[in-house]
Design brief:
heterodimer, A: 6 helices, 9 strands, about 20% strand, B: alpha+beta
């Protein structure tokens, strides 16, 4: 093969690979603008969100109910406006209606240094079972907690024992074991803040979330 | 190494293996679905049904009439409308070692989001991404749309 022909082959191969190879899709160019709308919770409280341009072109804070911004590719987010409720219903109503029901929370308390439930808390178990029965594909998260009496390592174990004993109760009441996940936060996430080595019945608890 | 410590090591290894072999816990599950909707798990399209698990790095996609609602392990709730594609890019919820992260990519379509415990325990750990925007969420409820 003489030299010019060889060059042609190389150029041709490069052109073919550029045309036929996997195309890089620039998603920022392919997609239209993004619109973000902050909404109040059903109880009326409103959180906040920080919306930034993915290209680093600026940011805005959203802080009120129905506060909205639109971000086009490589442009700063538009100044926040308030969208009316009817427009939100039209654009997002069906999607909002598809949100699963809010998880239901239960707190069960324990006797001192033990994994025996108090009588009052034992009486809450039927409510937990009812919540499980009333949901599609129910799951149960069980997190054990302790007060600050004793060292943190022992309390981690005690928290796990408590979560386990609730798991056992739920299983014996008919909840499928595979639906339950357990963990322990020991003394690290008290409901009532105390100094170290303080007896506090309200911290000796298991928090259950039925979702 | 003494014979006894060899045996101890062997036992430790043998008991460690099942822990690794165990499937990872799903990030969440489908709770509501209507119309055409899929979970894309390791490249496979699985029709979404009530109870279908959704793992970190899975995508959800809907057709013209599809809608899906899922609840994640930290009580985060998400729903998507028709012609929507999202990806659970990152979901880390390890309470015991305070490791939290949630990154949701919205490729196209309509999404509703209600924050869960990750946003409560570690607000900076939650990020929603669209092709043109990055949203940091300090709670709790928002909707977003990525236009075609």
């Amino acid at each position: 093969m003489n030299r010019p022909v060889a060059w042609l082959v190389v150029v041709g191969a490069l052109a073919a690979s550029a045309a036929c190879g996997p195309r890089r899709v620039d998603t920022a160019r392919a997609a239209g603008p993004s619109t973000v709308v902050l909404l109040a919770d059903p109880d009326g409280t409103v959180g906040s969100a920080v919306v930034s341009s993915a290209a680093g072109a600026g940011m805005v804070d959203l802080s009120g109910d129905r506060a909205a911004t639109t971000v086009a590719a490589r442009r700063p987010p538009s100044p926040p406006t308030t969208v009316d409720a009817a427009a939100i219903e039209k654009q997002f109503g069906q999607t909002l209606a598809t949100l699963p029901a809010a998880p239901e929370a239960f707190t069960l308390y324990f006797r001192l240094e033990s994994n025996d439930l108090t009588d009052d808390s034992r009486a809450l178990l039927p409510g937990v079972l009812k919540a499980v029965a009333g949901r599609p594909a129910p799951e149960v998260g069980v997190v054990g907690h302790t007060d600050t009496t004793g060292d943190s390592k022992t309390n981690y174990t005690l928290g796990l024992d408590r979560a386990n004993s609730v798991r056992t109760l739920l299983i014996s009441a008919g909840v499928d074991a595979s639906l339950i996940d357990i963990s322990s936060l020991g003394e690290s996430d008290p409901r009532i803040r105390t100094a170290d080595n303080v007896l506090e019945p309200r911290n000796r608890r298991v928090e259950i979330s039925v979702r | 190494m003494t014979g006894r410590s060899c045996v101890a090591l062997l036992i430790a290894l043998l008991t460690a293996v099942p822990a690794y072999a165990q499937a990872p816990a799903p990030a969440g599950r489908v709770k509501l679905v209507s119309g055409m909707a899929f979970v894309v798990h390791e490249g496979r399209q699985i029709p979404a049904a009530v109870g279908t698990p959704v793992y970190e790095q899975d995508s959800l996609a809907t057709g013209a009439d599809g809608r899906v609602g899922i609840t994640l392990r930290d009580d985060t709730r998400l729903s998507i409308g028709p012609q929507t594609t999202i990806e659970i890019s990152r979901f880390v919820y390890a309470q015991s070692d305070s490791q939290f992260s949630f990154v949701l990519k919205v490729v196209r379509g309509v999404v509703a989001y209600v924050s869960g415990r990750i946003a409560k325990l570690s607000p900076d750990a939650v990020r929603l991404e669209t092709p043109s925007a990055i949203i940091g969420v300090r709670g709790t409820r928002l909707v977003l749309q990525v236009a075609e």
